[in-house]
Amino acid sequence: MPENFDQPLDKRRRTFRRNRVDSDATGMIAERIARFTGTPRFIIWLTLFVFLWIAWNSFGPESLRFDSAALGFTALTLMLSLQASYASPLILLAQNRQDARDRVSAQQDRQQAERNLADTEFLTREIASLRMLVQELATRDFVRSEMRDQIELATENKAAEIARRDETIAQQSATIADLEARLEALGSLPGETDR
10 Å Cβ neighbour count for 72? Predict the structure, then answer.
């Protein structure tokens, strides 16, 4: 398929069409094979295969033997070499994919750590600002002492006001008593009895 429809295709591209291999699918298959070759089950199966190969070619009917024991089981050696030559690149491919996953995971961990650090710094700044505000706020003991002082001041003011009232009352009582005394003195005047 052309990338741009307004340009004609190159003739060479038509004749030599490359099959595109899905690298993810190939990688998944390689990982499955690499995982299987690293298991005890694979070792058991391979051992069983080698044992059956050697047993058949050593003790089987001569006409049905296909690998000579006298030559050191050359075909078996070639089969095992072929298996090893395919296994090593598949294992490397699986390791490369694992490295890529690890790289992505490490990058995500780094980003998460950066977010956590930013959140921690923000919370630290908030806690510091709250501590500064709390230092400016009145504490319970300070409020109590201020209230006690205000109550004492109000009590003193009230006592002073009461003392002033009592003094005023005493002065007014003295004035009244003086006026009554004057009235009595005036009441003893002549002609006062007629009233």
Answer: 9
